[in-house]
Amino acid sequence: MVFNEQKITYKVKGLNFKKFLELLKKEKIEVSMLKRQEYNIFYIEVNAKNVKTFLKIANTLNYQVEETNSTILLNSKNNIKRNLSLFICVVFICILTVFSCNMVYKIEIYGLETLTKQQVVKVLNDNNIKAFKTKSSYNLNNIELLLKSSLDKISFASAIIKGNTIIININEKINNDEYIYDYQPIVAPYDCIIKKIDLKSGTVAVEEGQTVKKGQEIVLPYIDYKDGTQLPVKASADIYAYVEVSHTTQYIENHTELVRTGRKFELTQLNLYNFIFKKDKANFNYKKYETEISYTYPFNNFILPIKKTTITYYELKEKSVFIPFEKVKQNIIEENKKVLYNNLSNIKNKQFLSYISYEENIYYITSYLKADVIFN
Amino acid sequence: MFDFFDEIATKTGLPFEILNNGFRVINFSNKSIFIEGFVSIIKFESQEISIKLKNGVVRIIGNNLTIKNMNLESIVITGEISSSEIC
Questions:
Q1: What domains are there in chain A, each with its CATH number?
Q2: What pLDDT sits at residue B7?
Q3: Does residue B39 sit at the A interface (CB-CB below 8 Å)?
Q4: Taking residues A239-250, what's their average pLDDT?
């Protein structure tokens, strides 16, 4: 690439040019187009980089210097002409840059879950929405409406242009059918008579005053529509019911009990996880026995996970015992009461009764609990 | 250019050092004169230009004579050159 030097033409007025030219030569200033028009006027072209020195020398010799022409701009033009190909390239690049800034090269789609990218692209292509068009040719609102109207699964679509890319964000509809409703009905926890139902949500399946069995559905987890469809809802209600429960315990005054004789046998074994690597032999001959098992970790401080299991066998023997019923009667009633109360919750207006009968050396203690209960 | 002066040196029989250390004046069909090894400008008018060389003087006569270019070593004179003499 060749660029002309920038030159300035001066009209110099003065005498003794020889000295002036010698000084220019001495200062290594290259001059050109030196013309003497009159005896005291000449024209001279000086490189732009030497102008300062040139003017200084001219000033020293009291010359009148006048700038007549500058080739700086001219040379620039000449350069452009000479480098026409470069100029065309620059112009072409500028046009290309402006053009490319206004183009869309890519369409990106985000937010797809069940839909595929191909489905969305197909809709866009069918409506002539493709890449490699000018930005102004795209109507983003139309793209959003088109996607929403064309694909039922789309609930929301937004399109923006960022750089040279159209970014389409899609939100898909939530498909209710995919949800599995795990609403459970309210069932009777025990046999009872329904007194009142304060329904919060769901459908009542029994009537007030109706006797229900344990496990029977009282409130169903849905609402019936007139058109026959059902809307799943959580079954919720406060159910007031009357309940009668009973529990019977038998007691025999003369009975045998197993008591320890005092003899025992200890058996130990060492385990490393599930592996038993030391086990004693069960060397005893008790007819009846009971066992107690205890575990210790002898190497607990040494990290070794060895477990020592000690099984103690206690010899038992049968022993006849006579405890009069009257002595244990109250305890049995209290036990019955505990059992009955444990089965019920939120008890109100309770009534507890116990009946005792005797038949063939056996006492039958039957306790009744009658109460109003609330469950939900 | 070196081939050119080598050829001159060969044809004239002069050593290259003498050719190289002196001055050179080349006249291009009386349209332009290239002078190398000039010392100073003795006379500069549109009809006559005299230039002092290292070992002599060159005198150029013509019309509209212009110093086309002048730097430390060389000078180029253009115009309607009618005669040039070296003495």
A1: 7-78 (3.30.70.260), 103-172 (3.10.20.310), 180-253+323-376 (no CATH), 261-314 (no CATH)
A2: 78
A3: no
A4: 89
